[in-house]
Protein 1
Amino acid sequence: MQEDVRFIQGNEAVALGALYAGLGFYAGYPITPSTEVAEILSDRLPKQGATFVQMEDEISSMCAIIGASLTGLKVMTATSGPGFSLMQEAIGYAVMAEVPSVVVNMQRGGPSTGLPTSVAQGDVMQARWGTHGDHSIIALTASTLQDAFEMTVEGFNLAETYRTPVVLLFDEVLAHMREKVIVPAPGELEVVERLRTSVPKGTNYHPYLAREDGRLPMSDFGGRHRYNVTGLVHDMWGFPSTDPKVAYDLLHHLVDKLENRADSMAHFREYYLEDAETLLISYGSPARSALHLVEERRKRGAKIGLLELQSLWPFPRRTIRKKCEGRIRVLVVEMNRGQICQEVRKTVSNPERVYLSNRFDGIFISPQDILQTLNVIGGKGI
Amino acid sequence: MLVKDYIRQRFFPHLWCPGCGHGTIMASMIRAIDRLGLQQNEIVVVSGIGCSSRMAGYLDFHTMHTIHGRAVAFATGVKMGRPDLKVIVPMGDGDALAIGGNHLIHAARRNLDLTAIIMNNRIYGMTGGQFSPMTPFGEKGTTAPLGNVDHAFDIVGLAKGAGASFVARTTTYHVQEMTRFLAKAIEHHGFSVVEVMSQCPTYYGRKNRLGSAVDMLERYRDGTVSRGSKKAAGSHDLIERGIFVEEDRPEYSSEYSTLVNRYTGTNESEER
């Protein structure tokens, strides 16, 4: 069979990835630089019998996809920083009520309206801690459009598997760049379908009673089981409870189901790691510059490698600790004031050897920028 | 018909105060649903946050107790996900009109087939009696100890202006009328808003020296009038009850299905 080769924009790669994963419902509100996701889906979804709704704001967009998810559909919304801020309360609801949902954040410069058409990665911590209360969340990213497509499919798979919101934390450069994407044939990538309960009609179904493997089979609204969904601390019936044991167990479940799998479900790419004395750690579009520099320096005999993170949250701590072991220096390359760099420093045994190469002025970080940082670290001056 | 067939007795007693009007509204809603002969599995109740919103948990339908002000937005997702289901959205006045005002008017503009029940007790009860967007000018709340300087919404006028195709107002005193209006609203194919003037003797009543729950109900009896009646024509001081809007207009989920069918050539509702 002939390959489906396309030359497309990042937003389109994400939209196509979502459709590949079986997107059934999209709700969103226009915002730069993610708007094309909505534009493409507003054309594609109705034509295949699925639903597109343009809501009155990002708050309602997030709420609407949660509602639609409970009817049994795979759901997504897409936004950027300001809209992502507005979604936070409802994202917390999806965490608490364990509703599978996918949120795309094409990061732009912040805070506030910031730099609407410029690239940044300032929302890494907001993705982790944006909603209130103790919780865990999944955030994925990518540096190429092929990976963005695949991480979008993976985002849906993880959302369905763990009944959780998944943040696709891409950025403006990835959203607006164009490059080759080979759209996988149906069946080529794994697509996880929702786990539904086998409890028969007339038998008690406990929507929040986990199976032995920790998974909670769902029942669609309109289906044979009627149950309650709430953002309050709730028991196995989904009914509000203030019992300390119920609260303790629920919080444990919500956090552990993801954090205990942080390393086993982590996605990352390694380049020239075996003998690397200098290890770059990067993610999202800046990883392109990092890889470019690594390959340049390798040609000149430098022992340098790149660890590209595709899973940011839950943070794959053990993996990173292992990959950083024995390196002379670790340089985190990102487009913020060191949000992942801080996590790496917390993780490794020699935090003083972890350095940061960053830009946060709206200009895309270049291989030259990273080289300058390496020169400063190496005492060579700028 | 037994009301208890529609409630989750496991979760009782409920948390509403003695004399609260919300239980009366819940019972009326159940009677309306029973009268329409709807199956419990075809009804979804989506609520927000507040005293009124606890109703969702007590009812044996598909129920969703969401976040403050956003019930209509969640309900939009449910309805567009399963247009064949009846979606009922009970809200308090603060929930529907302050924090949730934007979602209410936009759902009305789309004329999406939801039934919004605004349980108007003129106060934020759950948080202890702060003034709401329905507290009249000059009245008292715990955040208006010196008298409210805000003005209240006219829910009927707001819903009408925003495009709701069914708009009605009634009170917890007029239970038969309420059941009738709720049945019509649930049956109506389009966005319907039913304002039910409810009583909060615990906070609103006490703060404003309105007496017991019975006294407050009697005020609804004496202070309201049926729309179009002779009595209504003779008085400007009485609040009108009745159906203010009942129009057959294109409904959002049906319009969307028509759009889909144009491209897929199938009837989506049959597919399901």
Note: Chain A has two domains: 4-183, 269-377.
Protein 2
Amino acid sequence: MSALVVRSLQHLHGHIGWLAALALAHPAVLLRRPERRVFGAALASTALVTVAALLGALIYPSYRETVKPAIFAAAPAVGFLFERKEHLGIAALALAWCGLSMYLLAHRREAPRADLGRAAFVSYAGAAIAATLAASGGLIVACYRSF
Amino acid sequence: MAIGVIPIAIGRERARATRRARCARLALQTSASCVLFLVVYSGLQLLHAVGRDPAALKALSSIPLFGRLFASTSIAGVLGPIIGLIPGNPEQRLRQIPGSLAIALTLFLVVAIGLP
């Protein structure tokens, strides 16, 4: 992958990551009342966090080869912050998909709506927290050094 | 007339209860997969932090992060649906999902933030 492509993907990943973090808070806030219909917000936020994660996974091998050694040599704390951000991003992705599944199941006929709505709320709230922490970590690392 | 209505009502009620139980079971399987994913990933992260990465992870991917991700997804994808099938009242167990998810996320956050 050329440097220009990696750099562009990194910018896209950063912007979509922040959008996803904000978007995940939307269903979390709305689902405080578990019976509410938030299909659009749930689907859009889950799609955004998935795209952000895929872009991140795409540029991670290049990051490991070029940026990671330089960051760890100069500032190990920033390098470890990046590693933490990766884990938090994975948690946000898993919880967002769990939240979407719970929400879809809650709106099936005869479903125990209140219980599943509460589970969707916890999933989206957790995903929003994890995604915000991940996006903040990514921003700090990108300010320090990027492609 | 009432004698003719009761069996129909019972049949409908049974079908409704079956749909409800099936839905609860599916939710249990999904949430068990998510909880397991977070717990297994935390465990693998813990092993990575103490320098005892399982050899199988290296076979999955040369990049440890991806190896952990593939391993946790596979384990959660297989064991989650099985755990969701454990007998018991699925609707009663549904009430434990939010708490289980919150505990798994807390464990994940402690491990991910505490141990890079």
Note: The mean pLDDT of chain A is 93.
